[in-house]
Amino acid sequence: MPIREGNYQVNPDVGILYLGTVLKDAGYQISLLDCPKEDFSFSDFRTYVKEGDFDVVGFRCFSRDHNYVNHHASIVKSIKPSTLTLVGGPHPSALPEFVLSRMPNVDFAWKAEAEEGLPQLLRMFSEYKHEIPEALLETIPGLVWHSRKEERIVVNKPGFGIDLDSYTPAWELLKPETYPGYEERKTVSTRIWDGFFHVTTTRGCPFPCTYCNAPNLSGKKLRHRSVDKVIEELLILRDRYNAKRFSIIDDEFTLSKKYATSFCQGLIDAKVNMKWDCPNGVRMDSLYPELLLLMQAAGCDALCVGIESGSARMQKLIQKKVTVETIRERANMIAGCSNIRITGYFMIGFLDETEEEIQETLNLACTLPLRRAAFNVVIPIPGTQIFDELIDNGRLKLEEINWDTLTNDQVAFKRNHVTGKRLLELQREAFLRFYSRPSVALSVAKETLRNPNVLRASISKLRKLSWRSETYSFTPMYLGSQRAL
Fold this sequence. Notes:
This protein has two domains: 142 residues, 3-Layer(aba) Sandwich (Rossmann fold); 286 residues, tm_1862 like domain (pyruvate-formate lyase- activating enzyme, Alpha-Beta Horseshoe). The protein is 42% helix and 13% strand. The chain has a six-stranded parallel beta sheet with strand order 6-9-10-11-12-13. The longest helix is centred in the C-terminal third of the chain and has 16 residues. It is α/β, with parallel strands linked by helices.
């Protein structure tokens, strides 16, 4: 994971874990480096790479990481030019040709999942080094590569053929005991949203939401891990790392009622006895009383729900395929039939959204039975319909995008009706209105006073809401480090 600055949380990354596990099972020696966790500077990274003398170095890349990953790769090549450099993740998956052309020190990029194709590439590299025949490169699912013969960048068809039950995640590769707060997180069973032991049960999403790129990353078809395999992983976390809770980070955990029911019953039958939550956001229209009661019996004590907007017009425009009336009905149903705590995810600042429609979202948030809420500024995520439309109408120019601004608390593009300054004011107003209500404020205060990490995070959030402009004002680390190359 690359060096990162700004607003982020340090947690084990299961995407890297799964890739590492597949390569470990194939017989390769693997080292996973989480630069934010290690608090690395680029000088630290240079030393690490030099001492490690790696044959292959790969990077996970979100769009906000573009400039940082580019600089990481430059450091690797300056130390050992023969090193094979790779980049994968959401950013190259959405903009494969652009990323590979703009990162001159990256040899290959990846579109979508890499578990199936990466071992194939490494086997070819072991045999041919940097002279892998193009006929072989063409066979690797999802590979993005330079064709010397055709003088262009080739993007192979993504592969979604990996058997999700073909491996059990090797958590020892991530060394979870070295992450901040590990001792506290493994022993406190009442704390929610610790975001530490992330587990996936499904991949894929069939919905066309305009703000989300999930279907392009993991396919539109919903695929499941077997319940037995997931429970096997949970028992390892419980017995080896004394984990008391876990988080299901699927995009669509509850979409298949049959699978969700089977999973919950499996937890009960296996006596896993762990608390759990769903922080990525489940669809409210996939929930019903019987499932919620079974989830609660199986240990679920918190859900995040994707609400996005309180405006009926915006719900149609973003193709969420859910109505405001359904949102109200299901939120009240969750609160009425279970003790599961609900956090609502909201988005403000869609291109054609008016201030009145943003106020509708704020009003909805304050009338629903939510324990927590997040109000995020819309990000133009590459690969989404929102991003494509902004490019098509000239609001964004691919060559001019400042990738450092693609975070949910900065303003990356101009809206039709609301200025960037006003949008940030509305975001601040949303948080203050929601959390200043006595019942919510008391609940937050109790959790904050109980937990120093929550206290620090709360203070940091308040500072950012009070003292910020439309973009961060610090000088990125990669700019200061470029002089050292």
